[in-house]
Give the backbone structure.
Amino acid sequence: MLASNPAKTDQAFSSVFASFRGWLHNRKLIRVCRQRLDACDKNEIARIARDVGLSPHDLREMAALGPDAAKQLLDRMDALHLDADALAKSDPTTMRDLQRLCSSCVSKKRCQRDLLLVPDDPMWRHYCPNADTLDALQSESTNAR
């Protein structure tokens, strides 16, 4: 029988524990978002939704997804050398649409894996709902240089 390596076991346990702690933290943030939105009356929700360019229904859906729901978008934009902050300032409607699509994307795990392993692989364009817009933004950026 092979003896186990206590250092590897501790490292694996720490990794699992850190992942679980991150998951709990994210769940707490989502719960807080929902509670804050639930504390608002119908008119306040409509005003907030209008301010951010969403319908009240879409606002509730976005709040339920949590604050990191569009994280892959920021990572993808970084991989494409696109400035998310600059886009949010110059064209907030486009940035909001990109975030909305990314937040509700069904390919999040694949996207995250691709970003970690092969961020330059063009395969993401086949499943990303933002591919056309990101390609257009990248072309504009290249032409501006």
Summary: The chain has two domains: 16-67, 69-145. The chain has eight helices and no strands. The first helix runs from residue 6 to 38.
